[in-house]
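Sequence, C-alpha cells reproduced for absentees:
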Amino acid sequence: MPASDRVIVVGGGVAGLVAARALALAGRDVELLERGNRLGGQLASHSVAGIELDVGPESYAVGGVGGAALSSLLRSLRLDGDVVHPRAMPAWLHRADGSAVPLPASNLLGIPGVPLAQDVIDAIGFGAAFRAQLDNLVPGLVAAKARSVGEVVRRRMGRAVLDGLVAPVVRGTHGVSPDELDLDLALPGVRGALLRQGSLAGAVRSRRETASEEGLVASLRGGLHRIVAALTGDLERFGVRVRTGVEVTVADEHGVTTAAGERIDGEVLVAASLGAPASRTRVTVATVAIDAPELADAPRGTGVFVAEGAPGVAARALSHLSATWAWIGEATPLQLLRLTYDGEAEMTPERAHHDAEVLLGRTLPAPTDAAIVRWERAGRRADAGHAIDGMRRVGEAESGTGLATVIPYALDVVNAIPSDGDGRQD
C-alpha cells in the first residue's frame, strides 16, 4: 500500500489505540508507534491480594454523547456484558476541621441539587446553605457562559459551597481545582440545563433525573484495564502494525522520524505530547488490603473526599473498593482501600494505613498486602485543537480527562479524516 494511504499513530495510550482501531475499520493502512514497552497509558493494572486492579481511572461517566460513544465501543469490543455499576451508597466528606459527614445525597460533583436539604446544612452550615439557595433567585443567564466549574458555582451558590463541597470532590476525582476544570467537559449538558431550569440546583436535579437507573458512573468487572487487551486484540485482527519501544523524535505532515533514524512516510495522527507539551500532574495511588471484616458494612460508603488542609491526612481521596464494586467484594474477604495522593508525596504502606484510619474513623489492622504506583495525567492545553502543522491530535491534552471525553474526541478526529473505507465490520 502506498505511503499516501498510510496513517501513522504516534502514541499507544487509550486515545491512540481507539484512533488506530477506527482508522483500520475505515480501511486505512495503520502503523502505531509507542515509545514505552506497553500499551494503554493510564489504563494499567497492578496486583493486590491476588486481584488485578486498575492503576489509573476506575470508572467512567455514563450518559450524554460521551457515555453513549463509550458504551458503543464497549459493545463492539464485546465487553458490554461486563459493565458494572457502583453500589448505591453515599460517599463522605472529610472536612477541613477534621470532622466527617456524608456528602449530600442530591449532588453532582459536590454541587447540591437541594441547597436547603438537611444533609447540605449538616455539611456546610445553614448560612452557606442559605446562600446557595439564592441560586434559585438569580437569573438563569448569570454565569451561563462560565468556562469552569469553579466560576459557575462561585457566582451562583457562593464560595462556601465551592470550598466546602465542590472543591474536595473535584480535587479527589480530577486532581485539579474547580477553577481548572472545564464545565462542559466535566458536566456535559449542565450549561443547557441551567438555562432551561433557571438555576444551577435545578440543572443538577435535572441531570440526576435523566441519569440511568444504575447511576452516573460505571466500570468493568475485572477493571477498566481490560479495554486495552480488547483494543490491542482488534488491532492485531485488523492488521494494524503495532511497535513498542519506538520513540518518534520528529513528526510533520508527511511522516515521522524515529530516534533510530528510521523515516516512515504517511499521514500523522499524534496521540502523545510530541511537539506540543501540556502541563502534567503526577498522581500517586496506594492500594492496601486489610483483614477487617468490620469494614464490610461500609462505614463511610463508597469512600471519602478530603478537603484541602484537613489536619493529619495527606490523601486527597479514599475509595473503598470492596464496598463500591461488588465483583471486588466477592473476590476476597479482605477489604481493599485505594488512597489517592498528589504525585510528589512521599508514600509508604504505613502512611496509607494511617490515612485510612483517619478517613474511616477507626483503628485498623496492618495491611496484609499493598501496592504503590505513580502515573501522570496531562492537563488540557489552552490551544487544544484537532489539527496542528498538518497533523491531527488526540488524547487528554486535547480533549480533557475522562474516558467518556477522550474516546469520543478521538473518534471525532478520525471521522474527520478522509477515507475510502473498505466496509470492514467490527
